[in-house]
Amino acid sequence: MANVSNRQQATALVAAAVCAGVFFIDACGWIFDCGCTSLWAGGAALCNTHHATGPRCPWCAHPVAGATAFFGVLMAQAGAIYAPVPTTFLAIGIWGRFAAALVAFPVVVAVVGLMHGAWYGYWG
Fold first, then answer.
1. Given this model, what pLDDT does residue 54 score?
2. pTM of the predicted model, to two decimals?
3. Which whole number is the average pLDDT over 84-89?
4. What is the extent of the structural domain holding 27?
5. Number of domain units in the chain
6. Burial code of 71-99, b = ≥16 C-beta within 10 A, e = fewer?
7. Measured between alpha carbons, how far is 93 from 5 in angstroms, rounded to an integer?
8. pLDDT at position 4, please?
9. Does residue 13 contact residue 21 with C-beta atoms inside 8 Å?
10. Exposed, middle or buried: residue 64 (CB in 10 Å: 0-12, 13-18, 19+)?
């Protein structure tokens, strides 16, 4: 049985949130193919939201939509790290919870991204 301290949980959540924050704009470019790239490669400078015509990236054109997607990721990561687990899974420890939080990032951004893309008519 692995004991997980509050300090370990907080550290894991901060590390997972930093990973999500750094790569969130990459996910934007991956989901919407809008031109967004890594923060160190220009970020949203080439995003289609800056174009005069054509579809506009839902997360860049509507910052509240992007913020809700990121907030959803943070909530999923917090759930993965802080949620009570059945006794049979206690052995996963903090590293298992951290891995689950990292996996939550692409899953949540894909689901929320597809929802936002459909809502704003991005692909239609």
1. 85
2. 0.89
3. 70
4. 6-119
5. 1
6. ebbbebbbebbeeeeeeeeeeeebebbbe
7. 10
8. 79
9. no
10. exposed
